[in-house]
Automatic annotation (TrEMBL):
The lineage of its organism: Bacteria, Bacillati, Bacillota, Bacilli, Bacillales. SUPFAM superfamilies: EscU C-terminal domain-like. This is FhlB domain-containing protein. GO terms for biological process: protein secretion. GO terms for cellular component: plasma membrane. InterPro entries: T3SS_substrate_exporter, T3SS_substrate_exporter_C.
Amino acid sequence: MNKQNDKPSPSVVKGGHLAPRLKAVALKYEPGDRNAPVVVAKGTGRMAEAIMDKAAQSGVPIQQDTSLVEVLSKLDLDQEVPPELYTLVAEILSFVYRSDKRAGGSKV
């Protein structure tokens, strides 16, 4: 957490060095609505910061996974996550659901 403004301040690390640009991808999954999670937002730099700020303001947990973000950022908006990424995305969604449950909410 950034003590100045109480917002998560994730650092994107790649190979032990800071990545040249911050990246973020937001996923949405509603069982019964679509077959798989869908990319609802993505961006680099300031756009990535805005995505993470919006998530933090909405109480949506932020998970850091540099490799997965690289792959997901290549998908189009409103595109379903492909089957070959289901296992990795399931781990992220599991983290989100556990975080939400611990917080006593249901934002997911």
